[in-house]
């Protein structure tokens, strides 16, 4: 798989880790201007990719910044204890990305379409996130120590609201005046193995809908005026890349000559404009479990002294 094929199919890579893997596969060496750190936990591995200069940005196709990838196949399993441990890893990594006092005001933004399950991760996270700003304003006696004022919004998508998502978030930001925005969105993966097993955190913000070929205004520090941390999970994969992988494996296993071209793949996908994406049949359960993990990780990071067992008391 090379960058030329991705470009020809109009596929962009949401995960910095996958972009690095493809470039390294082509060159056989580390990308100049890219630095990588790795950590290992019981149920997850963490890879941090630092894109440090504009030359690396051009090669990787990702903005200069810090990208933390948590790989945890256990997310797909029915194991609540393991899911809680993954949430704890997420909280630990998230806390490394901001340095704010306890009184800092945080806005959580759940991006995506709540009517389309693979795109509903952001709204589902908002449903389960521990929001407290209203309590600080109207019921301070209900609060305990170690809590921050947190508000949350699921602004929907352009096709539902008729309003650019970034415009809605800008409007809310202007009124709420947060010191930090945490935006959650569904991503597209290059590999089906990463669907609902991988969580990416980035300090570069996010472009809603970019993973399925859309061009939308970004939600980042430049457009919002405050720091934006993006959290994303792949929920779909490109059919073109799946087809290419299948062809490559078939040719390798049979020692056959390449007889299927990129044009053939394009012709098969032509009814969908070449942008067909696929998602697992169990996506409903995967979204629900992943949303709980991410909401738990965010709540642990923002309210460090609150026992997760007490979250239910504050939820809605």
Automatic annotation (TrEMBL):
Keywords, alphabetical: Hydrolase, Protease, Zymogen
Catalytic activity entry: Endopeptidase action with P4 Glu or Asp, P1 preferably Glu > Asp, P1' hydrophobic and P2' Ala
GO BP terms, alphabetized: proteolysis; spore germination
Enzyme Commission number(s) from the entry: 3.4.24.78
Subunit structure: Homotetramer.
Family: Belongs to the peptidase A25 family.
UniProt cross-references to HAMAP family, sorted A to Z: Germination_prot (MF_00626)
UniProt protein name: Germination protease
């Amino acid at each position: 798989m090379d960058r030329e094929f991705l470009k020809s199919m109009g596929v962009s890579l949401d995960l910095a880790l996958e972009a690095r893997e493809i470039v390294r596969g082509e060159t056989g060496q580390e990308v100049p201007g890219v630095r990588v750190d790795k950590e290992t936990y019981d149920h997850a591995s963490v890879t941090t990719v630092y894109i440090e200069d504009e030359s690396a940005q051009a090669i990787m196709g990702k903005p200069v910044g810090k990208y933390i990838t948590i790989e945890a196949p256990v997310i797909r399993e029915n194991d609540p204890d393991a899911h809680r441990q993954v949430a704890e890893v997420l909280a630990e990594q998230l806390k490394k990305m901001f340095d704010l006092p306890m009184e800092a005001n945080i806005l959580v933004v759940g991006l995506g379409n709540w009517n389309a399950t693979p795109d509903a991760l952001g709204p589902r996270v908002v449903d389960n996130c521990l929001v407290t700003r209203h309590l600080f304003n109207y019921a301070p006696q209900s609060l305990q120590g170690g809590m921050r004022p947190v508000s949350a919004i699921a602004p929907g998508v352009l096709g539902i609201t008729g309003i650019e998502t970034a415009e809605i978030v800008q409007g809310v930001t202007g009124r709420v005046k947060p010191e930090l925005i945490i935006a959650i969105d569904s991503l597209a993966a290059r590999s089906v193995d990463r669907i609902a097993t991988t969580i990416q955190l980035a300090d570069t913000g996010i472009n809603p809908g970019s993973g399925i070929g859309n061009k939308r205004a970004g939600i980042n520090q430049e457009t919002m005026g405050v720091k934006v941390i993006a959290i994303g999970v792949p929920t779909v994969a490109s059919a073109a890349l799946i087809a290419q992988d299948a062809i490559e494996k078939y040719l390798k296993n049979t020692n056959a000559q390449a007889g299927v071209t990129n044009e053939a793949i394009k012709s098969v996908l032509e009814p969908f404009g070449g942008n067909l994406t696929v998602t697992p049949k169990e996506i409903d359960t995967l979204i629900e479990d992943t949303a709980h993990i991410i909401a738990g990780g965010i709540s642990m990071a923002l309210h460090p002294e609150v026992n997760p067992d007490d979250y239910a008391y504050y939820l809605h």
